[in-house]
Amino acid sequence: MNLHEYQGKEILNSFGVEIQRGIVAQTPAEAVEAAKKLTEETGTGWHVIKAQVHAGGRGKGGGVKLAKNLQEVEQIAGDIIGMNLITPQTSAEGKKVHQVLVTEDVYYPGDSEPEEYYMSVLLNRANGKNMIMYSTEGGMDIEKVAEDTPHLIFHEEIDPSLGLMGFQARKIAFNLGLSGKAFKEMTKFVSALYKAYTNSDSSLFEINPVLKTSDDKIIAVDAKVTLDDNALFRHKDYEAMRDIREENEAEVEAKAVGLNYVDLDGNVGCMVNGAGLAMATMDLIKQAGGEPANFLDVGGTADAERVEAAFNLILKDPNVKAILVNIFGGIVRCDRVAQGIVDAYKSIGTVRVPIIVRLQGTNADIAKKLIDDSGLDVHSVIEFQEAADKVQEVLS
User: Fold this and answer.
1) pLDDT tens column, 328-367
2) What are the residue boundaries of the ATP-citrate synthase/succinyl-CoA ligase C-terminal domain, all occurrences included (predicted)?
């Protein structure tokens, strides 16, 4: 589950991570009041207005701007709220901005120049250890840094049985070229950041940039946080942070009825039971010259109601030109799935695309007869190659 910047910062701050302070606003008037309150609390004269969407690169799309007075706060907030923000991480249509974060200006003058760093905490799946990735090149796309100057990216892997050790936090501060007060502040920052990551059951914490202020404070200016959905039962307060406005509508609908669904850009809808078979089915579609329109795992209880819900989801996609149903009857009986397909087809009414059904396993012969005798425009196949040939046929 992805979080907005302000939500990620709330979690960080709850574990002792220093953050750039800010207040969320839904309207330009609220943005002005937020700016006034921040001025009272922090003394900041300038404010940064940040679009709150689940996408990086907001500044490149005009979603992060500096306001030097209250008039500019109101104007900039008015320009950003309601806009469709297009960034390198959004679709061509962009994402609609419903709210902004009004923050304090932390790039104030002082004894030294502010410096920006990159830092993230994530799981290294190759060895099953958590990893802190960091760089002196903060504020930039880390992918570009990795491509152009890979020697400027450092990694610190953490033994899960020991946790983050003190010498590792000090090593990170040293590699970032820090000394004195900034060195001590960075070691505290790293320790608190790792604690926030593990205790919140997150799969990613990305801070870009981490800022060393002109008076040697270390603070998180941004926060990209992804929580592990499987651990949300332990964090009901985090679960309440979900913003379904930022999520794919079809995926939200699928989740509500217990379907595992991922929206894709292809032309062949898939309905499968089991993640492995679903991946194989998507490969099959590619080999047949099509493109998968979705990943859809109906699970082991593919009754008529679930099948109908799955069909409805697939048919809402205007790009779908055919549907391939590929079910292996292990736990679930094929004849039950077949009856679900027939009932769902009749319930939906007019289906605008051809449907190819492959059922294998328990009672597969009975299932094929049910479909063949239904009188519906459904193509029943047995073998994988037969399914691929039929997909190719209906697309041509």
Assistant:
1) 877 677 887 788 778 777 777 777 788 888 888 888 888 8
2) 271-390
